[in-house]
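**User:**
If convenient, please work through this fold.
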Amino acid sequence: MEPKYFLSIVFSSYIWKDIGWNSIIYFAAIMGINQDIYESAAIDGANRVRQIIYITIPSLVPTMVILFILSLGDVLKAGFDQIYLLKTPGNASVSEIIDTYVIRTGIQQGDFSYAIAIGLIQGLIGLILVLVVNKLASRKFDTSLF
């Protein structure tokens, strides 16, 4: 009910929700790194920290870039399910996002065409963000979705 706690609760629950899936993705990427590189670094005298800095993290950059690009498509959605479930009259002043506005406008007020237009604009902005960042990532990191 307290608006001052709403954003911290939503943020921490969003992190908690996504940490498991992202851990699986990063673990799979780490397992895909050639072990011969680590053995060569150990022979050259690199300790575990140096191996992480100079082998593991640079090898994870393509995975980080791809996950960042994929997350940009949903940046304007802001976790609708969590916010909609946590929204109460007490925190309504801080819990309004585009998706809850679309639901309120379309379903509760019956202005379907306006709600569809807002949703379409939101989707187009997400698409443009993905395409632009994908092009930039292709130029900068030689990694892209397509």
